[in-house]
Structure formats: C-alpha cells, structure tokens
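The pair is set out directly below:
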Amino acid sequence: MALLLGTHAAVSNTNADEWLQERYHGAVRGDAHDFFHSMSCFGEGKYVIPIVAGVTYVFDFQCDAAPCLGEWAGRSLRAYGLGAPTVLVSQWAIGASRPGERDHASRWRPFEDTNAVSGHAFVGAVPFLAAAGMTDDPLARTALYAGSMLTAISRVNDDAHYTSQALTGWGLAALAVGAVNDTMECRSRVKWTPGVVSDTPG
C-alpha cells in the first residue's frame, strides 16, 4: 500500500502524468482507441457489482451446479467489500482531479476533489484478478492479468483519469484480491478430522 501511494505521489506531483497522457494519445488512435473505449463498461460498478453479487448468491449459496463460478464470484465480492472503502477514502484524501478538470491537474490537493483513484479501474480489475488467482495455468493467468488492466487503460484512453490514478485503482484491486486469496488458501489448509481420544469424558 505504501509503495502504491508513493508511486502515485511521485508520478502525480510532477509532470509525468501529463507527459504520459500526451504520449498515449499520440500513439493510440483509430480502432485501438475505440477498443479501449469499449472496455470502460467492465468498470461500471452499478452494474458489475450487483451481477457479481447475484452470481455469488445463486452459485455459492443456492446450488452446486457450477462451484468454480460461485467461488470466483464470492472472491470477487469479498474483494470489492475489502477494497472499496480504501478506494473511496483515497479518492477524497488525495484530492487530485481528472485531465482538464482543474489547474492543479493530477497533483495532490487533499479534500479538494474525489478523482485521485480510478474507481472504474478498481471495479474492472477485480473479477479478472480473482479468476487469475484460481488457475495454475500460466497462459490463462497471464491473459487474465492482461484483461485486468483493460479498464484502467480505458480510463486513460478516454481522458477520464491520469495514469497514476488508473494504476492506483488497479493496484488497490490487486491488493484486495491478494488478501482474499490468502484467506482462502489458509482455509483450505485447515481440515477438521473426527477422532477418538482416550481418557476424556463424553
């Protein structure tokens, strides 16, 4: 977390964010621009989170038809619950603005704005990262990690966020999913086994 915010500070409080924004738009045009624009839909929390919650309810609690799907949705939902408060507090506490919104641009201005961390990047990354944590296939994991960054790129693509803000949203998603994965692994190592112990009552 400290490394993530330190990187955000180093990039956002210099001219690096503006430089990266200019370079991106100088390199990405046409069909590539349109593709990344379409990826923003994965970060729409008002749609994505209810869908994930619904899948969790159906497949994690109500039926065993698709246990992997239920586990994936459950991990994603827990990561949202764990990471969302940090995203919201960071957005407000850092106070940076969107491209073209205010004169101070991406520079930190505590409590002056709420765009310092990309919520879209956070929401869009979680399901991909949760799935990546459930597979041992290196190719599948690489593809899922790449997919997890598409929404973050879309925010830079659309001038909705600076690079530092998009990457911090992605980074908070990675931390939240990592914490959930660690919890799941600890649970899987604990096994309850019935046994008989002599010289005990009952």
Remarks:
- The radius of gyration is 20 Å.
- The chain has a mean pLDDT of 88.
